[in-house]
């Protein structure tokens, strides 16, 4: 019995629950959750992370080897959130979407709200009262491997899908997570993202 209790304690103590956060984090307000771990660069070991959240900069902090490491992390079962905004805040997101899908974000779109009425989706954003779009958003091309979770001006704003054993979210409006835009609706969007990636 003692061995079972010890194993249960040991596995919960060292469970892979942390979310690694990289990129342009200075204006974000999502870190009250203690499972978010902010780093300036990609750690050498990713074993202690269940998901990676990347908020794109204007210049990438990732090398080609690091993008390959992140891609393998997702293929092996990890979750990956790729957040971008209107140019120039697209560097890391475009690096990784080009590697995984051979596609990059485009355009600039502004609206007060987004449409998230689709039924056949992963994130179930249609259950929320409102999905804030972000300040100055971009779109990502349609791809048969991805489901469009939210639309802005008839363009895909938030997409999700599987990559190997893992999952990905591509978001063209991460400024919704800025402190000046924070609301209960934003918190609910973040929760939906986390539920899908974990």
What's the gist of this structure?
The protein is of the alpha/beta class and 198 residues long. It is 25% helix and 25% strand.
Can you give a write-up of this model?
The protein has helices at 2-13, 64-75, 91-101, 184-197, and strands spanning 18-23, 36-38, 49-55, 79-83, 106-109, 137-139, 146-152, 155-163, 166-171. The protein is of the alpha/beta class. The protein has one domain: Rossmann fold. The strands form 2 sheets. Strands 2-1-3-4-9-8-7 form a 7-stranded mixed sheet, sandwiched between helices. It has a two-stranded antiparallel sheet with strand order 5-6. Helix 2 (64-75) crosses helix 3. It is globular. The model is unreliable at 1-15 (pLDDT under 50).
CATH topology: the name is: Rossmann fold
Mean pLDDT: 89
**How do the strands of the widest beta sheet line up side by side?**
2-1-3-4-9-8-7
Q: Count the domains.
A: 1
Shape, principal axes of CA atoms:
globular
Total strand segments: 9
Low-confidence runs of at least 5 consecutive residues: 1-15
- N-to-C SSE string, H for helix and E for strand: HEEEHEHEEEEEH
Fraction of residues in helices? 10-25%
Provide the β-strand percentage band: 25-35%
CATH top level assignment = Alpha Beta
Shape-level CATH architecture = 3-Layer(aba) Sandwich
Question: What would you report as the Rg, rounded to the nearest angstrom?
Answer: 17 Å
Q: Helix count?
A: 4
Largest sheet: 7 strands, mixed
Structural class: alpha/beta
Beginning-to-end CA distance, first to last residue: 30 Å
In CATH, the homologous superfamily goes by the name Class I glutamine amidotransferase (GATase) domain
